[in-house]
Amino acid sequence: MRKKELWSTFRGNNNFPVYNWFYFTEAYSRGLVREVILKNPVKSKEPILYDPFCGTGTSLLVGREFNFQTYGTDISYLMYLVSKGKCLNFNVNKLQELLPKILEIKKESITLNKEYQWIKKYFHNENLQQILKIKENIEGIKEKEKFFFYVCLLRTAEIVSKARKQGSDLRIRKIPLIDAIKKFQKIFDSFLKEYCKFNKKNPCEKEPEILCENCLTFYKTHTELFDYIICSPPYLNKTEYTKRFGIELAILGKETILQGHIGHIKYSVKENKDWIYTKQFAKELAQIKKEDYKHEEYDANEYFKQLEIFVGESIKHLHKNGVLAIVIAGGVIGNTIFDIYDYMQDLYINNKLDIVDIKINREITCNLHRTTNMGQIKEFTIVGRKE
Question: Is 296 in the same domain as 340?
Fold first, then answer.
């Protein structure tokens, strides 16, 4: 069993098939979600779980283990695609039937669009052509099984690529030429075996509903109430990782869109109300300068406003006795540290949510320019139950 201090990171998923198909640093682990559910049972005989920032689908997979109906949203097309590739119910015979069509590689070269030419330096040319041709064949599939193949493709691309992910950036590594077709076949065989084993152990006929959209938009159109909302919203100093996952997005032919939306001025809040954060962080907010932001379209005031709206809307969409569990930490803007441990407790209490558990997962060191230690912030899981 993995140590619990790793449960708020993806490392807790490393030894679990299906969960570990796509490595995403910011993901939490299976163990954390299971603990929330097991310690906080609900009255419903057919519980419904929703993850508003579903990422790579960890919450949804755990929901499957418990035979829950699950819903997930994510504004990132990449995360949406990966979640579908890991969580949907697939027809194994159909997957095997489609594989030869996927591997029918045409001779003609594929030309990358101008905006994606930069990824050439991260691949041997033969490998890049193989990856793009497989992707083109997957695009021709109408059945939902295409999502399974997309995840196989992304894993293949990561293995044959010269790129090494380091923080939010990419570095070039030396790597020999690997036959991407054979590697794709091998990964497909491995993933299919793991999927069949997982599906046999956790039979679930309830198809998850996974959407590529803003969770606040989802709340406006979705009237059904949930028993569990388990998620990890973007942290205050979130990095969009558009460069880190730029290769995957380029292969898919997608723009480098936002990973998350909380804090972005595109979703600016016009509503005037008695915001809780203004009492907690007036001094810290006054210290921030415009040049302190890594992204010019990001704003700390918007982050806290949107976070407060998100928590309020989440509670509205819970059944009575329903559970809201959030994994979160503060962050650093410029040389100003925001520790939101006390703030989140006030936010829950102000929304009449009974805090049943709050646990510090780890202390995160904050560095200025990656060298000067400024202090630490708490990453924690806060669990509340609707009265």
Answer: yes
Produce one character per residue of 196-207: b if its CB has 16 or more CB atoms within 10 Å, e if not.
eebeeeeebeee
The enclosing H or E element of 343 equals: helix 341-350
CA angle 163, 167, 169 (to 5 degrees): 50
Furthest-apart CA atoms within the chain: distance in Å = 64
- Cβ(82)–Cβ(57) below 8 Å: yes
Quote the CA–CA distance of 228 and 87 in Å, as a whole number.
18
In a domain, 156, yes or no: yes
Q: Specify whether 342 is located in the same domain as 226.
A: yes
Task: Tell me the pLDDT of the chain (387 aa) as tens digits.
Answer: 445 545 556 566 667 889 999 987 777 889 999 999 999 999 999 999 999 999 999 999 999 999 999 999 999 899 999 999 999 999 999 999 999 999 999 889 998 888 899 999 999 999 999 999 999 999 999 999 999 999 999 999 999 999 888 777 788 999 999 999 999 999 999 999 999 999 999 888 889 999 999 999 999 999 999 999 999 998 887 655 667 788 999 999 876 555 456 777 777 788 788 999 999 999 999 999 888 877 777 889 999 999 999 999 999 999 999 999 999 999 888 888 999 999 999 999 999 999 999 999 888 888 766 677 788 889 999 999 998
Q: Are residues 133 and 276 in the same domain?
A: no
CATH number for the domain spanning 216: value is 3.40.50.150
Distance separating alpha carbons of residues 354 and 159, to the nearest angstrom: 46
**What total number of domains does the chain contain?**
2
Looking at the structure, tell me whether residues 232 and 349 fall in a common domain: yes
Residue type for 200, please? K
- Residue 84 included in any domain: no
* Domain encompassing residue 212: 4-77+206-244+257-386
- What's the half-sphere exposure (Cβ side, CA atoms, 13 Å) at 373? 4
Copy the structure tokens of residue 104.
């029918």
Task: Assess whether 275 and 336 both reside in one domain.
Answer: yes
Does 35 share its domain with 150? no
Q: Which of 380, 348, 353 is nearest to 364 (CA)?
A: 380
Q: Judge whether 72 and 55 are in contact, CB under 8 Å.
A: no
